[in-house]
Amino acid sequence: MAAIDTRFSQEDLDRIIQMAWEDRTPFEAIEMQFGLSESDVIRLVRASLKSSSFRMWRKRVNSRVSMKHSQKRNSEIKRFKSNRQRVIASNKISKR
Description:
- By secondary structure, the protein is mostly helical.
- It has one domain (2-93).
- It has helices at residues 2-7, 10-21, 27-34, 38-48, 51-63, 65-68; strands at 88-89, 92-93.
- The protein has a two-stranded antiparallel ribbon.
- β1 (88-89) and β2 form a beta hairpin.
- It is globular.
- The model is unreliable at 89-96 (pLDDT under 50).
C-alpha cells in the first residue's frame, strides 16, 4: 500500500475514492486515468475509509456490478459520467 500512497497526491487519492463511489464510473475508467486495477482500488479504498464505510462501499459496488465494469454495462452507455454532471474542474464537481 505504501507504493500507492507515494505515487499519488492527496487530491488524486480523493478523486480515485470519489470515482470508486460513483455508480456510473467503471473501474476501467479509474485504471485508464490512474493506472490502478480493480484490486488496487479496493485496497486503496479499504486503507482510506473506516471499516464500516468500506463494508458499505463493497456492498454498494457488488450490487452495481453491471455499472462498475465496462464489459458488463449496457452497450448504449458510452460515457463515464452522468449527462447531467457539469464539467469537472480541478477535480471538483461544479455546483448546480
